Amino acid sequence: PRFTIVDQETCIACGACGVTAPELYDYNDEALAYHILDDNQGTAKIPEDLEDDALDAYEGCPTDSIKIADSPFDGNPLKFE
Ligand code: F3S
Q1: Contact 21, 55 (CB under 8 A)
Q2: Which pTM was predicted?
Q3: Ligand 1 centre from 1 Cα, in Å?
Q4: pLDDT at 57
Q5: DSSP assignment of 23-64
Q6: Among 16, 18, 39, 60, which residue has the least CB neighbours within 10 Å?
Q7: Are 31 and 15 in contact (CB under 8 A)?
Q8: What is the ipTM of this complex?
Q9: How far apart are CA 64 and CA 33, in angstroms?
């Protein structure tokens, strides 16, 4: 299983992730991205059929704000950095 979270400190609201992976990422009132499935806590497993979308979003984010890991983030985007 894989997990994903957005670092909203570095997200510049570019809007790419929600286009690449609309079932995983949406935007809050400030247009900052968040992971839909767990309210951006990084604790919900990415559904297998969406893993490719998550990886595409990860690679496409201009500020490296999309984080992906094999373990839950527990709300901390920088947990594994
Ligand atoms: Fe933000 Fe990166 Fe998405 S800058 S809007 S997390 S593609």
Answers
A1: no
A2: 0.97
A3: 22
A4: 98
A5: TTEEE-TTS-EEEGGGTTSS-SPPPGGGHHHHHHHHHH-TT-
A6: 39
A7: yes
A8: 0.98
A9: 12
